[in-house]
Design a protein that fits this description.
Layout lengths: L2 E5 L3 E5 L6 H6 L1 H10 L4 E5 L16 H14 L5 E6 L1 H12 L4 E7 L11 H13 L1 H12 L5 H14 L2 H13 L13 E6 L7 H10 L4 E5 L11 H11 L15 H11 L4 H8 L3 H15 L4 H11 L4
Helix pairs in contact: 2-10, 3-4, 5-6, 5-8, 6-7, 7-14, 11-13, 11-14, 12-13
Keywords: Hydrolase
Protein name: Alpha/beta fold hydrolase
InterPro entries: AB_hydrolase (IPR050471), AB_hydrolase_1 (IPR000073), AB_hydrolase_fold (IPR029058), Sig_transdc_resp-reg_C-effctor (IPR016032), Tscrpt_reg_LuxR_C (IPR000792), WH-like_DNA-bd_sf (IPR036388)
């Protein structure tokens, strides 16, 4: 199972939503800046669940038990005993259940865009329609869900988010995890959560109704509910700063100054554009009239400056940054 660690300090574990891919997620500017903001003052731990992203393939059933075992395995791998949890979307339900079953291990709990019962996400016909579309046409299904999850994102970011979903999972895995999201019901566990809890929900969230955020807060003893403006289901999209500010304040961390995106030189941006077009180092060299070794050096410096490990991350970063591409 793949996991990533950034920052320093007490551990804050991100329990992911429906699908994730650690490398490509880090290459999307908005998502990277969101996670970097949360890792200032915390050791931020992210993971890809079995069968998703960089983790090994998995062909077994998708259950809450597997989700809880996954959290325990990640925390064991990083040597954590007591942690703070940030669960969003499907991960909010999972994090809440884990906090109910392991109260001694959870110091603080943040739930964003979650629900108490998957049956509240649309009606039965619409749920079956979405599952059928993903199963038969994963490309169209990922486009549809991206528009639902991130309506405020620019066209370039929405395009790369759809590609991100397809890279994170096969259609079969996507269907199985979405079906799990629809089937989960954590209402009976909420009263057993003892950790200080913050529930965040955007009023216009089209994927998870705000009434479900209210139900989460009402069911957890002493939980605070903050309803925010916006429509995006993904926490890193839309007014992500508002989400970061709420989380950092709840965790006792100071507010951050505005994060400035890492910049590249004009030549490096030119090279990044050609990487996004799928050109090899030799083809980049021919296009720019430089040696292949110089092209390779440019790509390497871009990768290091952005903190990426692959050309695919550079390409995804450029496409998300440049909506016209």
């Amino acid at each position: 199972m793949a996991y990533g660690v950034t920052g320093s300090g007490p551990i804050l574990l991100v329990v992911p939503g429906w699908l994730s891919q650690l490398d490509l997620g880090w290459s999307i500017p908005a998502e990277r800046m969101f996670h970097e903001a949360l890792s200032s003052g915390r050791t931020l731990v992210r993971y890809d669940r079995p069968g998703c992203g960089l983790s090994d393939p998995y062909v077994g059933p998708r259950t809450m038990a597997l989700e809880l075992e996954t959290i325990s395995a990640v925390l064991e791998a990083v040597g954590a005993t007591g942690v703070e949890l940030f669960g969003w979307s499907l991960g909010a339900a999972v994090a809440a259940q884990w906090a109910a079953e392991r109260p001694e291990a959870v110091r603080r709990l943040v739930l964003y865009g979650g629900w108490t019962s998957g049956a509240a996400i649309g009606d039965a016909d619409s749920r079956q329609h979405v599952l059928g579309l993903i199963a038969t046409h994963w490309g169209l299904g990922s486009d549809l869900l991206t528009d639902l999850f991130a309506p405020d994102a620019d066209p370039g970011t929405r395009r790369i988010l759809a590609q991100y979903q397809r890279s994170a999972s096969t259609a079969d895995t996507a269907v199985a995890l979405l079906r799990l999201a629809y089937e989960l019901d954590i209402r009976a566990a909420l009263h057993r959560i003892s950790a200080p809890t913050l529930v965040l929900h955007r009023r216009g969230d089209r994927a998870a109704p705000v009434d479900e955020g209210r139900a989460l807060a009402a069911g957890i003893p002493g939980a605070d509910l903050v309803e925010m403006e916006g429509r995006s289901h993904l926490p890193a999209m839309g007014d992500a700063k508002a989400v970061v500010d709420q989380v950092r304040g709840f965790l006792g961390l100071p507010p951050l100054r505005r994060v400035v995106a890492t910049g590249l030189t004009p030549r490096q941006m030119e090279v990044a554009a050609l990487v996004a077009d799928g050109l090899t180092n030799r083809e980049i060299a021919d296009r720019l009239g430089i040696t292949e070794r110089s092209a390779e050096s440019h790509v390497e410096r871009i990768r290091l400056r952005l903190g990426f490990r692959s050309r695919a991350q550079v390409a995804a970063w450029y496409v998300a940054r440049e909506p016209s591409k």
